Amino acid sequence: MNFLEDVKKYLVSFWQPVPAVIALGVLSVYYFGITGTYWAVTGEFTRWGGHALQLFGVDISEWGYFKIMHMDGNIFTRVDGVMIIGMFAGVMAAALWGNNVKWRIPASKIRIYQALIGGIIAGFGARLGMGCNLASLFTGIPQFSAHAWFFTFAMIVGVYLGVKVTQLPFFQSKVKLQKLSCGIDVQSDKSRDEGKVKRFFTFGTFIFLAMVLWAMYLIFIANSQKLGAAMLFGGAFGLIIAKAQICFTSAFRDLFTTGRSQMARAIVIGMVVSSIGVFSYILLGTPPKIMWAGPNAIIGGVLFGFGIVVAGACECGWMYRAAEGQTHFWIVGIGNVIGATLLAFVWDDISVPLATSWPKINLLESFGNYGGLFFNYLLLFLLFLLVLKLEKNYLKKLKGNTNYGK
Amino acid sequence: MENNTQIPTPTHRLDMHGEPCPYPAIKTLEALRSIGDDDILEIISDCPQSINNIPIDVRNHGFKVLHIDTSTPSVRYFVKR
Question: Ranges for the UPF0033 domain (chain B) (predicted)?
Fold first, then answer.
């Protein structure tokens, strides 16, 4: 009984973010080795946009972007699709286990517009750059694709611009600091219903087990090993991002808002770990995913970085927040699909100058296997230094401020 | 985390319900600069992601985290200068 209580306690509490990001790095390597693709979410969101257009009778068979994205099958038959089903199961289980599910309404109308407009800009930018914080950063850089580096540095610029805008007085929180009178009962506003907490925990366990059984069915009965594995990986990705509250958006944003570098450092370390793993699979013959390293990656990166800061979450961050009942992030998710679909709509007009006429640069081909590996590590080291430098600059500026705390 | 300690009695409160990150963290730092040395600030945030920013930012900026209560969907932080 005590053992079960300990397990439960672990499922209820939040997990430490730094080991969690490193675990995500390791898992994404195995995901690549087993399924041959990288952990990514926005490609599938784009396909959902395509399916939505088909529902309304739009013929998308001639749209170039949907040809690149391969619209064949549906969410239940594509690796990316079942991975996302697993992710949703993971984030829902995590939220229910942790008693984090609550209907939450945005504090003001401004936030609703921010969520929608930011979501659209981020979705558009992500698909222009051929990936979000995953495929063009966290899982794209370890693929040795130069586009991911273009995207990442451009994204940091976009994030900086986004921070500048969201810190304008108009966007600032209007919440007032309340002064409390002495002896106020601090417990009075605590609304913890033990029965509800228990029911939520059971429901979370049910969702997680259902996901595992579904994956087992795919592997052992339906003979779709890859899909079953993708679902299990999705479940693990979802569980980890939700339990450790992994926010890729906060990583670079908060270097500029409060001078916190913890998440950015964790992400670089996660990529250091996964680069060598992906490298070994590539040497064994798995082809890496390389995308056009052109203006698309740079423009997409700036738009994406700007959009995620305005929206408050990136394309996988909104998923676990949506499962927690934060309606703000349902709007971000809808915005993402709209933005990705808009990109697909204009793609045939802009793809040649911005993307397809530019080379797909594989660092392992440009510099040789070990040269490319070394070069990727050199860039990761420089990114790490940049993160430390930005943190230091922030704190230095803060110290010059007379309002600085003790 | 500081979950098992006694819940302190706050003198000030920031009710950040409905505000997404990073606003809870930014407001917390602003509020901490405006209160007195003996005051205790309670921040209520229903953005669970604040668990990875408010405590770290508070310490990074030279302030103290007294207690964190994660037992309800709205996380409550008790901090002082």
Answer: 13-80
Residue A168, exposed/middle/buried by CB under 10 A (0-12, 13-18, 19+)? exposed
**Averaged pLDDT score across all residues of chain B:** 89
- The answer to whether residue B7 is domain-embedded is no
Q: What number is the average pLDDT over the span A259-263?
A: 93
The pLDDT value given to residue A72: 85
- Beta carbons of A192 and B21 less than 8 Å apart: no
CB pair distance less than 8 Å for A179 and B16: no
Number of domains in chain B: 1
Domain holding B76: CATH number? 3.30.110.40
Interface of B with A in 39-58 (CB under 8 A): 41-42, 44, 46-49, 51-53, 56-57
Residue A264 near residue A21, CB atoms below 8 Å = no
In a domain, B23, yes or no: yes
- pLDDT tens-digit readout, A299-317: 999 999 999 999 998 888 8
Of A153-157, A222-226, A315-319, least confident by mean pLDDT is A315-319
At residue B67 the predicted structure's pLDDT band, cuts being 50, 70 and 90, is very high
Residue-level pLDDT at A262: 93
For residue A189, what pLDDT is reported? 52
ipTM: 0.89
Range of the domain at B70: 12-80
Which of B 21-40 lie inside 8 A of A, CB atoms?
21-27, 29, 31-35
Is B5 part of a structural domain of the chain? no
Based on the residue annotation, tell me whether B47 is a catalytic residue of this protein.
no
Q: pLDDT value at position A191?
A: 67
**CB burial string A365-404: b at 16+ within 10 A, e below:** eeeeeeebbebbeebbeebbebbeebbeebeeebeeeeee
Q: What is the 3-state secondary structure (H, E, C) of A287-341?
A: CCCCCECCHHHHHHHHHHHHHHHHHCCCCCHHHHHHHCCEHHHHHHHHHHHHHHH
Q: A250: which chain B residues are within 8 Å (Cβ-Cβ)?
A: 21-22, 49, 52-53
Whether residues B12 and A177 touch (CB distance < 8 A) is answered with: yes
